[in-house]
């Protein structure tokens, strides 16, 4: 009788141990699953817009010359998605190249004119402000054009070069000679003509 009770108790104990072992395995697997979910959620939080290798390859612009009407120029809002927008951007860049040359030559002429006329505007702070403003605008155009050329898009590159070349061709002779020296030459020529007559 006692042996039956002992055998029954031992079987019950084995059954309990077996159930606890199964529960432990299930809890550990659930814990591992939760950890994996936690890691994936953390990865999503740290990299919410992480693209795959294929898409990231197309997001970086090429470091060799290429031709495309779809470009992002300097700012995220300046994008060309069709031929019309692309040609409009080329015209703007061409005009910016001409403006860059004009500002560079105009600054030199203005400095020469200030020297000939005795110092430029008064007070002196106004002269420094004009000089600094023109320099800031000129440098901004120059470096902006350089960054556009570094996009390595053929049309945009030649728009930069074409604008600079056209600016040199149009403005070099017009802005080379200060107005005061030209006036002196014209005045001297008039006096010489009268003297000879």
Core attributes:
single chain; 197 residues; 2 domains; 6 helices; disordered C terminus; transmembrane helix; transport; copper transport; signal
Radius of gyration: 39 Å
What proportion of the residues is helical, as a percent range? over 70%
Give the CA-CA distance, first to last residue.
157 Å
Biggest β-sheet strands, sense, barrel: 2 strands, antiparallel
Beta content comes to under 5%
Strand order of the largest sheet: 1-2
Q: What value does the average pLDDT take?
A: 75
Beta strand count = 2
Q: Which structural category fits the helices and strands?
A: mainly alpha
Written account of the structure:
The C terminus is likely disordered. The protein has two domains: 50 residues; 122 residues, no CATH class. The protein has six helices and two strands; from the N terminus they run H-H-E-E-H-H-H-H. It is elongated and about 115 Å long. It starts with a helix and ends with a helix. A two-stranded antiparallel sheet has the order 1-2. Strand 1 and strand 2 form a beta hairpin. Belongs to the copper transporter (Ctr) (TC 1.A.56) family. SLC31A subfamily. It is found in: Membrane. Keywords: Copper, Copper transport, Ion transport, Membrane, Signal, Transmembrane, Transmembrane helix, Transport. It is a multi-pass membrane protein.
């Amino acid at each position: 009788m006692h042996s039956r009770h002992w055998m029954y108790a031992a079987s019950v104990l084995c059954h309990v141990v077996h159930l606890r072992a199964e529960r432990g395995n299930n809890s550990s697997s659930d814990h591992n699953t939760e950890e994996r979910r936690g890691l994936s959620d953390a990865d999503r939080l740290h990299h919410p817009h992480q693209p795959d290798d294929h898409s990231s390859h197309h997001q970086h612009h090429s470091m060799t010359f290429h031709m495309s009407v779809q470009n992002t120029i300097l700012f995220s809002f300046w994008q060309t998605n069709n031929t019309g927008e692309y040609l409009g951007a080329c015209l703007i860049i061409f005009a910016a190249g001409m403006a860059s040359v004009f500002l560079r030559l105009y600054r030199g002429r203005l400095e020469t004119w200030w020297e000939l006329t005795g110092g430029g505007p008064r007070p002196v702070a106004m002269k420094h402000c004009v000089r600094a403003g023109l320099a800031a605008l000129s440098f901004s155009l120059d470096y902006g054009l350089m960054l556009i050329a570094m996009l390595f898009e053929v049309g945009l590159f030649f728009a930069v070069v074409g604008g600079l070349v056209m600016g040199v061709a149009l403005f070099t002779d017009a802005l080379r000679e200060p107005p005061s020296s030209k006036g002196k030459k014209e005045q001297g020529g008039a006096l010489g003509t009268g003297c000879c007559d």
